[in-house]
Specification:
The protein has helices spanning 43-51, 71-86, 98-107, 125-158, 166-176, 181-203, 212-250, 253-259, 264-302, 307-317, 320-346, 352-384, and strands spanning 3-7, 13-18, 24-32, 58-68, 90-92. By secondary structure, the chain is α/β, with parallel strands linked by helices. It folds into 2 domains: 3-107, STAS domain (Transcription Regulator spoIIAA, 2-Layer Sandwich), CATH 3.30.750; 143-384, no CATH class. Strands 1-2-3-4-5 form a 5-stranded mixed β-sheet. The longest helix has 39 residues, at 212-250. It is elongated. It starts with a strand and ends with a helix.
């Protein structure tokens, strides 16, 4: 079979017109495509298809002299394939390497959308509302399922059948408790200072500045210490739990635990809930003391009060009921933060962006649950007269 060269390229391919089949173009691939500094141009193929007087019907490849290849070859083949489709030329890729042939077919399996991204049709209002309702329903079902599994896990814990490592629980307690002292101290000290400063400005009008100590003591121990500590923990531990579990989901570690017969709820979620449930009351009590100390700085600095007078007034204003209510609220907030973080972590997708989204969602969900729980418990305690 005689051949007439249409285009003579030094590298990495050439076009040949085979005789006696003038309607066939042979693309002869040669050389090492991995050493190319740039993607070969398809201008020669375009020129052959447009300027030749012969109407080509087939395009075949010859890869006998092809040394090695990589994604550059696949990009070139994809471009040539698009040109052939445009000119109604049939491609025969049987002579290509097996890997290149499979990748080319995979790349051509899903056609591009006719509409451009910017011109995509916007869903109607009913479509958006329906999608949001379905998503909310699915999220609610997943949350209820998670809560049910958590209750069952606590049931196994009380029966002594829960399976988790005590060393993991110790580490989680340290991370949620001792390592959070710094940021909890700073936030609650400043919160007590702010409450005292605002109270001084208002109570000075009535000559009742001594009651700044009462205001700070009751507000911090009963409400603000628990709320501010819980918000700090939500941004710290809640996000960390979601990121840790989400990363384990990406690495398929949770699937491996389930395969080995370890309940993920017992092994991963239960220790985290226990750690925050144990540490939040202590952090709340500590935060209340720091808030009162911050108020004392304002009382001693802006008022004619000694440290002894301020703390004596604080002692008269406080009672065990206020302290107990703050500790109870702190425990509730701790459990909610742990549940929100673990829930979003277990719901995380299997990508890096999904892990970040899970951490963000854990913080938002935790703060919303804290505020809702604060409102509910405040109303409930008021009805009970405590």
């Amino acid at each position: 079979m005689s051949e007439a060269t249409l285009t003579d390229l030094s590298a990495p391919y050439e076009l040949r017109l085979a005789q006696p089949e003038p309607d066939t173009i042979t693309v002869s691939l040669h050389g090492d495509w991995k050493k190319l500094s740039h993607l070969p141009s398809t201008a020669e193929v375009v020129q052959a298809l447009q300027e030749s007087h012969t109407e080509f019907k087939r395009l075949v490849f010859d890869s006998e002299k092809l040394v090695d290849w990589d994604s550059r070859l696949l990009s070139f083949l994809r471009s040539v394939s698009a040109l052939c489709q445009e000119h109604n030329v049939q491609i025969e890729d049987g002579a290509l390497p097996e890997g290149a042939r499979r990748l080319l077919r995979l790349a051509s399996a899903v056609p591009e959308k006719d509409t451009q991204r910017g011109q995509a049709e916007k869903p109607s209002l009913f479509d958006r509302v329906g999608t949001a309702v379905l998503a909310a329903g699915q999220s609610t079902a997943e949350s209820l399922s998670f809560l049910g599994e958590a209750f069952l896990s606590f049931g196994r814990l009380f029966q002594g059948k829960a399976r988790f490592r005590r060393s993991d629980l110790s580490v989680l307690i340290q991370e949620a408790g001792a390592e959070a002292f710094g940021i909890v101290s700073l936030i609650n000290f400043l919160m007590g200072l702010i409450l005292a400063f605002v109270g001084v400005i208002q109570l000075r009008r009535f000559g009742a500045t001594i009651y700044v100590a009462d205001l700070v003591a009751i507000a911090m121990t009963r409400e603000m210490a628990a709320i501010m500590t819980a918000i700090v923990v939500a941004g710290r531990s809640g996000a960390a739990y979601a990121a840790q579990l989400g990363t384990m989901m990406v690495n398929e570690e949770i699937d491996a635990l389930k395969t080995m017969g370890f309940p993920a709820m017992d092994f991963l979620v239960l220790p985290r809930i226990i750690a925050l449930a144990l540490m939040m009351p202590l952090l709340t009590l500590y935060a209340g003391f720091l808030g009162i100390l911050g108020g004392a700085f304002v009382g001693a600095g802006m008022l004619d009060l000694s440290w002894t007078q301020y703390f004596e007034e604080t002692r008269h204003a406080l009672n065990l009921r206020h302290i107990a209510l703050g500790i109870i609220k702190g425990s509730i907030y701790g459990v909610l933060v742990a549940v929100a973080g673990c829930l979003r972590g277990m719901q995380s997708g299997r990508s890096a962006s999904a892990v970040g989204a899970a951490a963000t969602s854990a913080v938002v969900t935790g703060i919303v649950l804290i505020i809702l729980a604060c409102a509910i418990t405040t109303i409930l305690f008021d009805i009970l007269g405590v």
